[in-house]
Design brief:
Elements (H helix, E strand, L loop, with lengths): L2 H4 L6 E2 L5 H11 L3 E6 L4 E6 H9 L19 E2 L5 H11 L3 E6 L2 E7 H8 L9
Parallel strand pairs: 1-2, 4-5
Antiparallel strand pairs: 2-3, 5-6
Organism: Streptomyces pseudovenezuelae
InterPro entries: CBS_dom, CBS_dom_sf, Diverse_CBS-Domain
Protein name: CBS domain-containing protein
Length: about 130
């Protein structure tokens, strides 16, 4: 199976000036664990994950004043829609992260997560009558 078949095409995009609280609220409303941060001044595309927000709050930082740009991963590993799920899982395992931004011709067209891969690799639950 390919990344294009597993990825979420709902890509939450935020700017670098969003507060962590704003980012968390948007992520929660969309039920996603990561947001793509578009920052042309810092080199283009980054990613802010729920773990980044959790780390900041755990350090006692104020989510109302901390900005996304200060917590964004900018050395992002990108996936191509044509990658296999094995390639995506290998990149995640090697890099120690749970989300890959999927680029097609330089545009963010999706995000694939560990959860997406597991969903594809696990057979659908079947209802067994009691």
């Amino acid at each position: 199976m390919l990344v294009r078949e597993a990825m979420s095409t709902v890509v939450l995009t935020i700017g670098p000036a969003h507060t962590l609280r704003q980012a968390a609220a948007l992520m929660s409303a969309r039920r996603v664990g990561a947001a793509v941060v578009l920052d042309p001044d810092a080199g283009g595309i980054g990613i802010l994950t729920e773990r980044d927000i959790l780390n900041s709050v755990g350090l006692g930082q104020n989510p109302d004043s901390e900005r996304a740009h200060a917590h964004t991963t900018t050395d992002v590993v990108f996936a191509a829609p044509s990658w296999t799920l094995e390639e995506a899982a290998s990149a995640m395992t090697h890099g120690g992260f749970r989300h890959l931004v999927v680029l097609d011709r330089g545009d963010a067209v999706g995000i694939v997560s560990v959860r997406d891969i597991i969903r594809c690799w696990t057979p659908a639950r079947q209802h067994v009558p009691a």
